[in-house]
Give the backbone structure.
Amino acid sequence: MGPREVIRRRLLISGAVQGVGFRYWAVREAAAFDVRGYVRNLRAGSVEAVLEGPRDEVARFAETLSQGPPFGRVRRVDVIEEEPRGEFASFDVKF
């Protein structure tokens, strides 16, 4: 298991993360990483992000998401490990 091993993580991000441009910020930030997946708002006021890609890239992008955008405030990030499915071609906002 090396850094190029493909993994999948589901992040449940809570705090002041809706109405602050979090999803579009995340898509812009994703361009710097070799990750695919999506980000979307959840009804409970949190944000869900699914990341799939090489282990090191997913870890680095997850760390970026845990910091949040300039006008947001991340209070908590729950990470769920999942099996990679290879279903994504890019990283996008999901509605």
